[in-house]
């Protein structure tokens, strides 16, 4: 899985440059992101290039969210892909996770978050 990391001030942005996230590659994602979920961290996960996610990858996103809450960190997902948004809606995760459709908007919101 291709994952790029960019740090802007106190914001960590992960861009996932792969078509699908599933049980075959989700551990790569976990290995990259978990070490950065620290007290007060602001993490943005850009899934705009992702077209498919299985239940394993969804459970990892929930794990990231829960870890962020435990550590008073901020974790937000960005995707404008209708297939992925449909998965979040169908599973009810659209209400549980912080999800934005626009990268610039998400960056601004997280940058201003306390």
TrEMBL record:
Domain STAS: 21-110
Pfam family, one: STAS
Native species: Deferribacter autotrophicus
GO molecular function: anti-sigma factor antagonist activity
Family: Belongs to the anti-sigma-factor antagonist family.
InterPro entries: Anti-sigma_ant, STAS_dom, STAS_dom_sf
Source domain of life: Bacteria
Record's protein name: Anti-sigma factor antagonist
């Amino acid at each position: 899985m291709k994952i790029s990391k960019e740090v802007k001030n106190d914001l960590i942005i992960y861009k996932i440059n792969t078509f699908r996230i599933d049980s075959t590659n989700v551990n790569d994602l976990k290995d990259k992101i978990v070490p950065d979920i620290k007290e007060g961290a602001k993490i943005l996960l850009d899934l705009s290039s992702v077209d498919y996610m299985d239940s394993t990858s969804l459970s990892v996103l929930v794990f990231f969210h829960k870890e962020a809450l435990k550590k008073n960190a901020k974790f937000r997902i960005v995707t404008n892909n209708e297939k992925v948004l449909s998965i979040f809606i169908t599973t009810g995760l659209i209400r549980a996770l912080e999800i934005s459709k626009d990268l610039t908007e998400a960056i601004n919101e997280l940058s201003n978050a306390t």
